[in-house]
From TrEMBL:
The keyword Lyase applies. One of its GO terms (biological process) is carboxylic acid metabolic process. This is Uncharacterized protein. Belongs to the group II decarboxylase family. It holds the Pfam family Pyridoxal_deC. Keywords: Decarboxylase, Lyase, Pyridoxal phosphate.
Length: 481
């Protein structure tokens, strides 16, 4: 069969197009790329398998090779090969995670993974679900917190409820703002609490904000602590947040989408001390741990609440008179109907590597990040934004020679704000590297190198990346800014 032989070629196509000699990216501006790929992208007329292969190869040629060590643009990188195999198997078996009857073993695997991970995070009697990402997990968290405070919200909505408010640090991920909007609470219901120089929530400010809201008859429903902020990788003081949540009777959620992977390490899990006191946690194995996108978990301490808050009891899917134990139909806990079997790819990784392998990988990238931080601290022209290391994020400026030994006034920082993105542009258009940059609070644009399990980097890769940043930084002049 023609289609089948095409399927057999896919592995070779992907292997060729991601081979070590293939550049990270051959960047083209959108209109130019549209022109280059015009015929390849068009879909009206059918093509032969050979033409299809040519078009697919061209699509991949112009795509970013996120498996390369020089892809440092995001909080994800290359995928774990076992995870990728798991994804392919899962896609080939094309089923949904909602009922035992269509996903018998995948259901057992999801349960197994959840129980293992719940124990790891200190919720041995908890509950959870795989969700399509950290932003969706944030929606789950607020829905659970709000339902716990006002169960009637499920049937009556928020019309007759008092004004609800939530708290998170100003350095947190933006998903809480979107979730507040989507859930009808509004973005103004989120109190963005000041963070310190290291990006951690200032706990005294949290308490003051809570008191002010309570005094003005608002109802705090959730405090979101972050374990690994997007830019600096900051970990909030979770124990102190837990103390405050206990005192004021407020739901504590921890966004551990990034930093949750540190729980895999006996040595570094202590950085998240207090997470076990939370009511709910989100963790994205698709970030640091290299599970293929998307793989995210939402965990709750209280068993049953997820089902109570989200179930719709559809009689055509979750019939209670089925011939098997319907407690294994777990899909009604979810906001989704059809749901990918994301647990399987994580199971493949865990099964192959075991707790010990994942522990070692976590320790390794933390050591690598420490090496990067120490190198940046000593290397001429480089300046750290924040230290010590919390998660494996290293943030820094590169100051080109022509900018050094000058008064660092507003004008100087204004130039630095433009220099960082310009260096990125040169790095990217020359295919040397893709690296994230961001401002943070009063800090002007700086680079963020965040380390992930895959591909496994060596110290020499880090030196090469810093060298690339330096080389491109030295190409900048005032005139070409
Ligand atoms: C700290 C943190 N939380 C949540 C998210 C959102 O996760 P997702 O991209 O899976 O929606 C991110 C994404 O970068 C993040 O950095």
């Amino acid at each position: 069969m023609e289609q089948e032989s095409f399927l057999h070629r896919v592995l070779k196509i992907v292997k060729d197009e991601t081979a070590p000699n293939v550049p990270l990216i051959e960047f083209r501006h959108p209109k130019e790329l549209e022109d280059i790929l015009k015929d390849d992208i068009s879909i009206s007329d059918p093509v032969s398998d050979q033409q299809l292969e040519e078009s697919v190869r061209k699509v991949l040629h112009y795509s970013v090779k996120t498996n390369k060590p020089t892809f440092k643009n995001q909080l994800y990188g290359g995928t774990d090969p076992y995870g990728l195999a798991g994804t392919w198997i899962a896609e080939a078996f094309n089923t949904s995670q909602y009922t035992y009857e269509v996903a018998p073993v995948f259901t057992l695997i999801e349960n197994k993974m959840l129980n293992h991970i719940l124990k790891l995070f200190g919720f041995p009697d908890g509950d959870g679900i795989f969700s399509p990402g950290g932003s969706i997990s944030m929606l789950y968290a607020i829905v659970a917190a709000r339902f716990k405070a006002f169960p009637e919200v499920k049937s009556k909505g928020i019309r007759n409820l008092p004004e609800m408010v939530m708290y998170s640090s100003e350095s947190c991920h933006y998903s809480i703002m979107k979730a507040a909007h989507w859930l009808g609470l509004g973005t103004e219901s989120v109190r963005l609490i000041k963070s310190n120089q290291c990006g951690q929530m200032v706990i005294e400010e949290l308490e003051t904000a809570l008191k002010n809201d309570i005094n003005s008859n608002k109802v705090p429903i959730m405090v979101n602590g972050t374990a690994g902020t997007t830019v600096l990788g900051a970990i909030d003081n979770l124990d102190k947040i837990a103390d405050i949540c206990a005192e004021y009777g407020v739901w504590m959620h921890v966004d551990a989408c990034w930093g949750g992977s540190l729980m895999l390490s006996q040595k570094f899990r202590t950085k998240l001390k207090g997470i076990e006191r939370a009511n709910s946690i989100s963790w994205n194995p698709h970030k640091m741990a290299g599970a293929p996108l998307q793989c995210s978990l939402f965990l709750l301490k209280e068993r049953g609440l997820l089902h109570e808050a989200n179930s719709a009891a559809a009689q055509y899917l979750f019939q209670q008179d089925k011939f098997y134990d319907v407690r294994y139909d777990t899909g009604d806990k979810s906001i989704q109907c059809g749901r990918k079997i994301d647990a399987f790819k994580l199971w493949m990784i865990w099964k192959a590597r075991g707790d010990i392998g994942l522990n070692q990988m976590t320790d390794y990238i933390m050591e690598l990040a420490e090496f990067c931080l120490e190198t940046v601290a000593l290397r001429p022209g480089f300046r750290l934004v924040s230290a010590p290391l919390q998660c494996p994020n290293v943030c820094f400026w590169y100051i080109p020679s022509f900018m050094r030994h000058q008064t660092e006034d507003e004008k100087w920082w204004g130039l630095m704000h433009k220099i960082t993105p310009k260096i990125k542009e040169i790095l990217m258009t020359s295919s040397r590297m893709m690296v994230a940059y961001s401002p943070h609070k009063e800090h002007k644009n700086f680079f963020r190198l965040a380390f992930t399990f895959h591909p496994k980097l060596k110290e020499k890769d880090i030196i090469e990346m810093l060298q690339a940043i330096e080389d491109c930084g030295e190409m900048i002049t005032i005139e070409n800014l």
